Amino acid sequence: MTSPLRLRLDAAALTRNWQTLAAMSGRAACGAAVKANGYGLGASDVVARLAAAGCRDFFVATWAEAAVIAPLGVVVSVLHGVRAEDMDAARSLAGVRPVLSSAAQVARWRAAGGGLCDVMVDTGMNRLGVSAEEIRGGLLDGLAIDALMSHLACADEDVAMNAAQRDALVGIADRVTARRLSLANSAGIALGPDYAFDLTRPGLALYGGVPRGEFVGRIAQVATPEAQVLQCRRLRGGDTIGYNATFTAPRDLPVAILNIGYADGYWRGFSNGGTARVGDSTLPVIGRVSMDLIAIDISAAPTLGEGDWVALDFDLPEAAARSGVSQYELLTGLGERFERAWM
């Protein structure tokens, strides 16, 4: 069955974004965070395209996510480490390794034979990670570690904490026999070569997000939601539309009802503020976004009819400003009802 919703995905833009980030990473290898189903775009499709472009390191949150892309024959790091419930997957998935982040995970991995792993060290975010004190106390001694990594808390801002975290990672590096150091996410790459170390781990910017001004004009939009028109109607001046009657027609208006809503990740924040597009015509969203439907003013495209396709403006920085929803949420909230169509 076909869907009245599709997510148009620009494969060339995805590849160019990774190449841009790889160039900005300098001598460091540039990986790719593909957790949350490739930030909503489809992890297997994203990995296949980035691997073909030269990406060799991929990062997911859980072992279930790793199982989806492991058959593609790529190297996968599981950022949430390894629970007791994950050990069967850890033993069976080739090319997949945990990012150990606690003493309990380290002990569990040692008991299983202590194969190649990555380790997360907490340098100030106070989320996941072993402490510098634990490392100095010998917690990691003897482990086969590929990447010792940490995570920047404020890379999208110019604050002293960025340098403090970088220096904390450097300060512990000589106590660990890791092959590589890794700190920078997308925004961290823009902080410069002192943050790149041996391996960068971009996520948002791969998919068209712009976490810092340095990316403006260098990162391309990848995902564009499109929806079919279910019905066209005409409002008379003074008519209202949608839940709670938040829009009143100032004059007679032609209106199209589209098959998309907040259940698909087109959030209520776009109510009376989002825009759609047909060709060069901009079509305002009017009224409240509901679960499955939105209304648009089609005065600029009066020939639009039932069954026609309409693109929703979804440039991530602009869409975030309009909706009040972060660029990350806009991407990862894209629902399962979309047919994902790579172009």
Summed up:
The protein has 343 residues and is of the alpha/beta class. Helices cover 26% and strands 24% of the residues.
Give the helices and strands, then pairings.
Layout: E1 5-9, H1 11-24, E2 29-30, E3 32-33, H2 35-39, H3 43-53, E4 57-60, H4 63-69, E5 75-78, H5 87-92, E6 96-100, H6 103-111, E7 117-120, H7 132-136, E8 145-149, H8 160-173, E9 178-182, H9 186-189, E10 199-200, E11 223-235, E12 240-241, E13 247-248, E14 253-258, E15 275-278, E16 281-286, E17 294-297, E18 309-312, H10 316-323, H11 327-332, E19 339-342
Parallel strand pairs: 1-19, 2-10, 3-4, 4-5, 5-6, 6-7, 7-8, 8-9
Antiparallel strand pairs: 1-11, 11-14, 11-18, 12-13, 14-17, 15-16, 15-18, 16-17
Overview of the molecule:
Strand 15 and strand 16 form a beta hairpin. The protein is elongated and about 75 Å long. It has helices at residues 11-24, 35-39, 43-53, 63-69, 87-92, 103-111, 132-136, 160-173, 186-189, 316-323, 327-332, and strands at 5-9, 29-30, 32-33, 57-60, 75-78, 96-100, 117-120, 145-149, 178-182, 199-200, 223-235, 240-241, 247-248, 253-258, 275-278, 281-286, 294-297, 309-312, 339-342. The model has no long low-confidence stretch (mean pLDDT 97). The strands form 4 sheets. A 7-stranded parallel β-sheet has the order 3-4-5-6-7-8-9. Strands 11-14-17-16-15-18 form a 6-stranded antiparallel β-barrel. It has a two-stranded parallel sheet with strand order 2-10. The protein has 11 helices and 19 strands. By secondary structure, the protein is α/β, with parallel strands linked by helices.
